[in-house]
Specification:
Shape of chain A: globular
Radius of gyration of chain B: 23 Å
Largest interface: A-B, 51 and 52 residues
Structural class of chain A: alpha/beta
Number of helices of chain A: 12
Order of helices and strands of chain A: EHEHHHEEEEHEHEHHEHEHEEEEEEEHH
Oligomer: heterodimer
Radius of gyration of chain A: 23 Å
CATH class of one domain in chain B: Alpha Beta
Largest sheet of chain A: 7 strands, mixed
CATH class of the largest domain in chain A: Alpha Beta
Strand content of chain A: 15-25%
Largest sheet of chain B: 9 strands, mixed
Strand content of chain B: 15-25%
Number of helices of chain B: 16
Chain lengths: 445, 524
């Protein structure tokens, strides 16, 4: 498919009042940028572009992986040993992994992107940095290295050891306090031992089976918190920090956290549960808020089903919402559709992989032989499939030149990494999203 | 070494062995069964779940067909709760020899397998996803049968009659004295201590492994392991068992069972029943076969692939194991090898396990000079007393009853928390895979992605396990599950697997859990 639409209207862009652009309506008009995908990478790119005054629309099939993740910002946790300082480890890491997205970015741009990100979601009060990883307990009690954590989680940092009581709710099946506590007591952490125990609260929540989101809503009721505190105060021993499942409210988590912290008079922190992730939803909302504040537009439930391309450019993408098809024309496109997990990269029963929106060539494909190894925790040959990009986040064609003039990629669509093993997912998403936006700004600015 | 005494020792905890246990116990023998793993983990738990009408064998193996329809009728009576009465269809697809259908009809008549031809339009009305280019369709009384449930119910019935089972007990050697088998020495894989079991009679029901057991008594028995692979698709592509109306071949059956449908199977001779792999080419062949029966099969989501090894007995060598009879073989080692008090029952099919047990126990009674009548065809299994078939909505109905009081641990298979806790206490097992087979925990589309963390936490708490052992149980389960999903990782199931990677590796960081050594795990 090819049309010349848009070709004749090239000119100065970014001249509109932010947020007041005419908008494409039902296929009319043209935005400066359409971002495909509403995960952390897509939203980061969109926010940066909107804040610079461009008219930006994010189109997305769904909410992306944010709702599944813990809302911590992993940059580099294992390489393959546990990483103490991402800042110190990154130069060697990019040397050893020349195909990794971090090798395209370089340590400075990663640091710049992270510091920019913290400012965008200031209300979540991210702590930490690239100098030293925090060690936060997973729901299984593994000390998990991460660079940044929201205020409600950061006091779970296990470095230096200490005493912890893990509060559990019987109605919540997605965090098991006893196993968490016992594993914490076995954890290898620098500078001290962790002593941990579990305390289950008998709080009557009116249901035997409450998901994390439902429980978080209950926690927004001051009466429920009062009851919780009444039950907890005698149960907490001197010198113990208090760990909660990450259910301390959806809308005002920092406020609820501060209230509990004040009432208990000791450090309080959240531990992420199985998905759906309450902190992930908070992060998504904070990013969405930042996008809207900057005048960007977010259209959900709009799956991209086609694209118009010609002369090495994309002129528009087509989305479908129910039976309604909409054309989204723009000067630039940010591809942030995710990888195999997010749905940006599909595969079929013959073992072939495909970039689903633009049909971009994929790299890091498994060589001849089994794509997956017999051991579950192995380094699987097909694990890193994705598009390859240059330093400016432009997807590469078969000849290693940018495949399309006006497309940049961000997030897990870019291959070459195993973020779930490296603990690098949000770092890659934020830094590539930020860098992709930088390319667009440099071209149109 | 600890010692035990019993009248009858049964070796092998598949359908045949547990059938023998029940039959012998019902006839008044003190009977003990040993199995090297968990019950129904050899071949029994690894088939497609088809309760044969016999239609599959009418042309090729009339004896097997007659046995199938005979036992089909009995099992529908005594094991109704384990059976979903899906009915079966034989359809002539574009790839099939059109002349076979008439031979099929004639052979059904000859063997007594009920068979009724219906118009193609009617078959397509019943099963709209079927290949519209089929040219003929026949209705037969096939059904779906849950092998685990059947084995557990058989064991419960045996226990009511005094029978006992020792899972995770592997036979190290047979006690052969004065030309007779007097029991066996077994190793307890969970407690570590060896056990000497003295028995008046020993029955080898070790299926594909029966040759190994027989050799321990100096009897040469050749059992050819015939590997068959199966793939479970994530929902019911058909609601009736669908067979190709053709000589038995690869991928000629789709069985709707529980919430999935299973396509099977292949037949490849392997040297060792414990060492074989699912080859990528076999998976591709199975998907092609599925495409022929249900167009679009390749775009549907495959959940898991597995294989089983059929025990095929033969006195002489055969190249294609499908040519060996599917009927069973009872070996009287007194007459054959001069070894007393020892029988081997092998070959056969899941559907005929009851009859195999009956013939075996009859032969034992004859040797012992005991008169006791078989009653297994008359007395229903526990929960099947009312002769009501299992129906797909049963779990939803159960769930509805406790909607507000209980947690749902496995959403895919609707396993509530109390049921899981009860199973953990009853089985005293720290092996999540045992619980999977008992409850279908983690068998749905997410293959344990959510329930396995929960189950680990509950297991740790219920059994008071040390954390490293609970951690090891989780890691062992993830590895076991990987075996099943790895051969079919594409499309939506690959996406699901990546989500699970994010949960287990990304979020929980299982790779860095402190664990007990593997050997310590299984010991509940």
């Amino acid at each position: 498919m090819s049309t010349s639409r848009g070709e004749g209207t090239r000119g100065r862009i970014g001249h509109r009042v932010p947020g007041r652009g005419p908008g494409p309506g039902r296929g009319r008009g043209m935005r400066d940028v359409v971002v495909i995908g509403a995960g952390v990478a897509g939203l980061a790119a969109a926010i940066r572009l909107a804040e610079a005054g461009l008219s930006v629309e994010v189109v997305a099939k769904g909410v992306g992986a944010t709702h599944l993740a813990a809302a911590v910002v992993d940059v580099l946790g294992y390489a393959p040993g546990r990483v103490d300082s991402p800042a110190e480890a990154l130069p060697a890491f990019v040397r050893d992994h020349p195909d990794h997205p971090y090798a395209r970015l370089g340590p400075e741009r990663i640091a710049e992107a992270l510091s920019w990100f913290r400012g965008r979601v200031a209300e979540l009060g991210y702590r930490g940095g690239l100098q030293r990883n925090l060690l936060l307990p997973s729901a299984l009690g593994v000390p998990r290295p991460t660079a940044l954590a929201p205020a409600t989680m950061a006091e779970g940092d296990l470095r230096g050891g200490g005493r912890i009581v893990v509060v559990g709710f019987r109605a919540l099946k997605d965090l098991h306090p006893r196993l968490l506590a016992e594993n914490l007591a076995l954890a290898d952490v620098p500078g001290g031992r962790v002593e941990a125990r579990a305390a289950e609260v008998a709080l009557d929540l009116g249901a035997a089976d409450l998901g994390a989101v439902a429980l978080a809503r209950r926690m927004e009721d001051p009466e429920v918190r009062k009851e919780l505190l009444t039950e907890l105060e005698p149960a907490v021993a001197d010198g113990e920090a208090v760990a909660f499942p990450a259910v301390l409210g959806l809308d005002d988590a920092p406020g609820i956290w501060a209230e509990l912290r004040g009432a208990l008079g000791r450090p309080v922190f959240e531990v992420p549960t199985l998905p759906p992730s309450v902190p992930g939803i908070r992060l998504f909302r904070a990013l969405r808020h930042a996008l809207r504040r900057a005048g960007g537009r977010l259209t959900m439930g709009a799956e991209v089903v086609g694209a118009e391309t010609g002369n090495g450019r994309v002129t528009a993408v087509l989305t479908r919402t129910g039976s309604r098809a909409v054309r989204h024309a723009a000067r630039w496109f940010v591809l942030a559709t995710g990888g195999v997990g997010g749905g940006g990269v599909g595969s079929d029963s013959t073992g072939a992989f495909r970039e689903r929106v633009l049909g971009l060539p994929l790299r890091f494909l498994p060589p001849e032989g089994p794509p997956f190894l017999p051991g579950y925790l192995g380094a699987h040959p097909a694990a890193r499939v994705g598009v390859a990009v240059d330093e400016r986040m432009r997807p590469l064609g078969p000849d290693d030149a940018p495949a399309l003039e006006n497309v940049v990629a961000a997030g897990a669509t870019i291959g070459g990494a195993e973020p779930w093993r490296e603990k690098s997912g949000e770092g890659i998403s934020i830094a590539t999203g930020y860098a992709a936006a930088g390319t667009v700004l440099a071209e149109v600015g | 070494m600890r010692r035990l005494e019993t009248d009858v020792l049964v070796i092998g905890g598949g359908s045949t062995g547990t059938g023998v246990l029940r039959d012998a116990a019902m006839r008044g023998f003190r009977t003990l069964l040993v199995e090297r793993g968990d019950l129904a983990t050899g071949t029994t738990g690894r088939f497609h779940g088809l309760l044969h009408s016999g239609g599959r064998y009418v042309v090729k193996d009339p004896r097997a067909a007659r046995e199938c329809i005979h036992e089909n009728r009995i099992l529908r009576r005594i094991a109704a709760d384990c059976i979903e009465d899906t009915g079966g269809l034989f359809v002539t697809t574009p790839l099939d020899d059109p002349a076979y259908a008439d031979r099929f009809v004639a052979a059904c008549r000859e063997t007594g397998v009920p068979c009724e031809e219906i118009p193609v339009a009617e078959a397509l009305r019943r099963e709209p996803r079927l290949n519209p280019r089929i040219s003929r369709a026949f209705v037969v009384p096939d059904a779906a049968i849950d092998s685990w449930k059947t084995v557990w119910a058989t064991v419960r019935s045996a226990q009511e009659h005094g029978g006992e089972v020792l899972p995770y007990h592997e036979v190290l050697r047979l006690l052969v004295e004065d030309g007779a088998v007097r029991g066996a020495v077994v190793r307890d894989h969970r407690g570590g201590e060896d056990l000497e079991i003295r028995a008046a009679f020993t029955i080898n029901a070790a299926g594909a492994w029966a040759g190994r057991i027989a050799r321990m008594a100096g009897c040469e028995v050749e059992v050819i392991p015939g590997k068959g692979i199966m793939i479970a698709m994530n929902h019911r592509l058909v609601n009736t068992v669908v067979n190709r109306c053709e000589m038995p071949s690869d991928g000629d059956i789709i069985v709707p069972i529980r919430t999935v449908s299973v396509i099977g199977t292949t037949d490849v001779r392997v040297a060792d029943p414990d060492r074989w792999e699912i080859e990528p080419a076999e998976v591709q062949a199975m998907l092609d076969a599925g495409e022929n029966l249900v167009p679009g099969f390749r775009r549907a989501r495959a959940l898991r692939a597995w294989g089983g090894v059929r025990p095929l007995y033969q006195e002489r060598k055969a190249a294609d194991t499908r040519d060996v009879t599917r009927a069973h073989t009872l070996l009287d080692h007194r007459a054959r090898d001069g070894v007393e008090r020892f029988l081997t029952i092998t070959g056969g099919k899941f559907c005929t396990f009851r009859r195999m047990a009956e013939e075996t126990v009859d032969a034992m009674c004859a040797q012992l000079g005991v008169e006791a009548r078989c009653r297994t065809a008359e007395e229903p299994l526990p929960d099947s007393e009312e002769a009501r078939y299992y129906w797909l909505g049963a779990r939803v109905a159960d769930r509805e009853a406790t909607l507000l009081e209980d947690q749902l641990i496995c959403e895919c298979e609707m396993v509530p928390r109390r049921k899981l806790e009860a199973a953990i206490r009853r089985r005293r097992t720290a092996d999540l895979d045992d619980l999977r087979r008992s409850l279908r925990l983690g068998m749905g589309p997410c293959q344990g992605g959510f329930c396995m963390y929960r189950a680990t936490g509950i297991l740790h708490r219920e059994l008071g396990l040390e954390a490293p052992r609970a951690n090891r149980a989780l890691l062992d389960f993830l590895q076991e599950r990987w075996k099943g999903v790895r051969p079919v990782l594409y499309g939506d199931q690959l996406r699901q697997a990546r989500l699970d990677d994010w949960i287990f590796q990304g979020l929980l960081d299982v790779e860095h859990l402190p664990t007990a050594r593997p050997a310590e795990v299984a010991r509940g």
